[in-house]
Amino acid sequence: MELEGRGAGGVAGGPAAGPGRSPGESALLDGWLQRGVGRGAGGGEAGACRPPVRQDPDSGPDYEALPAGATVTTHMVAGAVAGILEHCVMYPIDCVKTRMQSLQPDPAARYRNVLEALWRIIRTEGLWRPMRGLNVTATGAGPAHALYFACYEKLKKTLSDVIHPGGNSHIANGAAGCVATLLHDAAMNPAEVVKQRMQMYNSPYHRVTDCVRAVWQNEGAGAFYRSYTTQLTMNVPFQAIHFMTYEFLQEHFNPQRRYNPSSHVLSGACAGAVAAAATTPLDVCKTLLNTQESLALNSNITGHITGMASAFRTVYQVGGVTAYFRGVQARVIYQIPSTAIAWSVYEFFKYLITKRQEEWRAGK
């Protein structure tokens, strides 16, 4: 028994079951009409059969598709946020590192490891003692890292286009990191001097202004840059190793160069650890130049340690070869999360800011 057509009682404008159409065919056509896949003569566009457009949740611009829109301002803002956050989070470990690099520490300031040092500092000197000097560090870290990342990104692209057009050049990465270090250290060195003097055991300085005034009056303005050459001697190879290792690991963990937080964290942590371990002797000398540690000065006839050669000689006279690796554990422990935080925060804000800029331009 055939079903009656639906010209009037079925779907409006739908095809009726006729002599040449089976009940199954009529039901199938009716189903299509109800789902809006096809329209009959009275139902709008004849034969319009449009598959739904698939919305890709990742249809936004890829991370590495954004460099053209990532302005110098974007790099500077992202770099400043990353630098401040990195130094603030890791500051207690940085305080421990400074003390463990002391060549002839006070008996009350001899520590076996990082955790014991941090616990003893808090227990004997107060909860907030490991944070003394944080404000001057944050003040210096913002502009220093803004210049650092902006210079690195610009030079990396420029040099890569010359050395390896259309590709990634490890030489360009290392060279860009070295040049960026010149700007970073120029902005950060005075803050480093003040910070490390406030971190030392029995430091007479409780306020940043007191320390700045004392250094200026007793040693002159040059004291704020006494360790600059050593800082560069340490940081230039450090940053060359750091950036080359980071970009090398990115090629393996993130070959498509998308925004990938886990790859940024892992690559940053590994790059920081390798670079930190390799440059620890230079960091020990830098700390000595910054702090002018009184007990170490007793072994130096000039009364002041004024250069890298003098610092290297004093370190060896006081502690031998092993003294060059004082605090290596604290330095590596500090650098692993430090560079992981810096790269992940920088890449996140760089991606976020650039994406918002692209969306704003598209909506204009």
Automatic annotation (TrEMBL):
Bias-annotated ranges (Low complexity): 18-27
Region (Disordered): 1-28, 40-60
Keyword annotations: Ion transport, Iron, Iron transport, Membrane, Mitochondrion, Mitochondrion inner membrane, Repeat, Transmembrane, Transmembrane helix, Transport
Species in which this protein is naturally found: Nyctereutes procyonoides
Membrane topology per record: Multi-pass membrane protein
Domain of life according to the entry: Eukaryota
Pfam families linked: Mito_carr (PF00153)
Gene Ontology biological process terms in this record: iron import into the mitochondrion
MF GO annotations: ferrous iron transmembrane transporter activity
Family the UniProt entry places it in: Belongs to the mitochondrial carrier (TC 2.A.29) family.
Gly residues: bias regions: 1-17
Phylogenetic placement of the source organism: Eukaryota, Metazoa, Chordata, Craniata, Vertebrata
GO CC annotations, alphabetized: mitochondrial inner membrane
Job description of the protein: Mitochondrial iron transporter that mediates iron uptake. Probably required for heme synthesis of hemoproteins and Fe-S cluster assembly in non-erythroid cells.
Solcar-type repeats, residues: 70-158, 168-252, 259-352
Location in the cell: Mitochondrion inner membrane
Reactions accelerated catalytically: Fe(2+)(in) = Fe(2+)(out)
Name of this protein: (raccoon dog) hypothetical protein
InterPro entries documented for this protein: MCP_dom_sf, MCP_transmembrane
